[in-house]
Amino acid sequence: MLVHFVLLVWISLMVRPGKAQNFEHHEASHVALIGWTHAGGIKFDCTGSYIGKNMIMTGARCLERNGTRADVVRLGAAVGSPRDFAIKDVIVHYRYQAEYYYHNMAIVYLKEEPQSVSKIFKPACILSTLPTPATQIHLIGRDAEGVFQKTAVELVDSDKCHEYYSPTKKFKYGALLVCCMCARSTTTTTKCASELSAPMQTIVEKNGKRVPFLVGQKTIGRSCGSKIPGIYTRLSSDGHFPWIATIAGIDFANHDACFERY
Ligand SMILES: *[C@@H]1O[C@H](CO)[C@@H](O)[C@H](O)[C@H]1NC(C)=O
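That is the input. Now the predicted structure with 2-acetamido-2-deoxy-beta-D-glucopyranose docked in place:
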């Protein structure tokens, strides 16, 4: 009887639809979902990244839905150990303006420090330079059906990217500025992270230890299934990197120290 019960629970855990894909801890334990609590449950509508202490980095466009401020962050959903954290406060990039997509960045402060609550939540590092063409980067986050996907992407030269994005109302300077990076998937997959601020990252490996380094977060456009590259906020940009490090109070420029802390 008990054996049957245990077996049933085990089976139901194994075949939860839409949650079947699991990731290595270092790939996804920092990946956060930004949510809004409703009477019927939590509606998640954005992605973010745990970057240390009680801080989640996300987009400025991820803080409000239907006139309501996000109030909860879920960590661990992609590694099978979901845990919700209440949001205490937010800070938006000082140059962000709602009518444009530029400087689409914010830091969300949680009421608790995830790494003190559980060792499985490890903060990601941030790459202070633009990845070289040889760097393998991927996008991680939920697709339109809410399933986590990890998708290899390649950077697209900004001149080339500009051909696809003529300046629009929300992108009045186009995609040429140092603000952004353009990338598209190297495969023909149509399933990849579709939520705003999904992290683009590279895994740095040394002596068998692997650590995620964030390079961008999704801002606009589709990330796969299209020749048209998506646009990502470039974290290493002079207008972004010092801001994150200052607000967070973390020396992200010291890659080795961040690697060691992980
Ligand atoms: C905002 O409202 C729409 C329409 O009612 C709803 O479908 C959506 O889930 C809401 N979003 C959030 C994050 O609550």
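Confidence is low (pLDDT under 50) at residues 5-20.
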